[in-house]
Amino acid sequence: MRTALLGVLLLTAACRRPSTQFASMLTPANQVNITDYSQQLKAGDDLLALGNNPAWSLTINSSKNFLRFKGQNGDSLTTPAPERQPDSDGVFRYSTGTESNRINIVFRPDSCVDKLSGQRYDYRVEVDFRGKNYVGCGASLRQLALLSDIWVLTDLQGTPIVAGGPRKEAPRLEISLSEGRVTGTTGCNRLNGTIKADTRQILFGPLATTRMACDSNVAQLERKFLNQLTNPLTYRIGESQLTFLSKGKSVMIFKKVD
C-alpha cells in the first residue's frame, strides 16, 4: 500500500514539474507555394534570372565577383560581376564584355510568371548577348538574405512589447534561411523549427516549443505570438526593422539585434 501511495505522489510531482523537452508542436495552418532559395543563399547569389523558348539562365554573385550566363546553342559567358547601373522607377542594368562578346542586362520591377514552372518573380529581365535577345523572369535575393539574423519582437498586433517583470525577455527569432531553420523564444519557452521564405512570403513550422510554466500575462502573449507564426505571412525589411503582415496589415514588428 505504501509503495502504491509513493508511486502516486511521484507521478503527481512529475506532472507538476515543467518540461524542458521540445514537446508542443505547432504546424502551419495553411500551406503556400514558396520557392526554396536556400542553396542560392548559401552560395551568396544576389540576382537570378531565367527564361524558356529558348532556355537560358543568369546568376550574379557580387561576393564572389562573377556573372554567369548560359544561353542557347552553347552561348555562355562567365565574367567578373560588372557594376550595377541604377535607372529610374527601380530599373537597373548591367553591361560588360568586349564589342563582339558584350552582354547587356535589364531588370524591370514587374510581376512575372515563368510559364514552365508557374513560379512568380519580381522582375522582368531582358538579356542581349551576341545579337540574340533573351526575355524571362528574375529575382533579387538581397532583401531575402537580410532575413537571416536575430530579431526581437517590439510590437504584436499594435501592442508594444517591453521585456521586464514576469517576462524577463521579449520573444525573439533567430532565422537561418540557408539552413531552413529558426530558433528563439516566446518570452517564456524556447522554440525550434523549420522556416521557408521567398522574396515575398514567409512560412514557419512545424515549430516545437518547451512547456515551461509561464505567468498568465506572458502565457497570453505567447499564445498570440505562436498563433501568428502558424499563418503564411508577407514581410518588409528596412532600417533594422522587420515587419510581418497578414492580408496587408501589420501583425508583428521586430528590431534587429546588434
How is this structure best described in words?
- The protein folds into two domains: 19-35 and 144-256, Lipocalin (Beta Barrel), CATH 2.40.128.270; 45-140.
- The chain is α+β, with helices and mostly antiparallel strands.
- The chain is built from four helices and 19 strands.
- The strands form two sheets. The protein has a nine-stranded antiparallel sheet with strand order 5-4-3-2-10-9-8-7-6. Strands 11-13-14-15-16-17-18-19 form an eight-stranded antiparallel β-barrel.
- Mean pLDDT is 87; it is low at 1-22.
- Strand 8 (103-113) and strand 9 form a beta hairpin.
Short account of what is shown:
The chain has 258 residues and is an alpha+beta fold. It folds into two domains: 19-35 and 144-256, Lipocalin, CATH 2.40.128.270; 45-140. The protein has helices at 2-16, 38-43, 142-146, 216-229, and strands at residues 19-26, 47-51, 56-61, 66-70, 76-79, 85-86, 92-96, 103-113, 120-129, 132-140, 150-156, 159-160, 172-176, 181-185, 190-197, 201-211, 233-238, 241-246, 249-256.
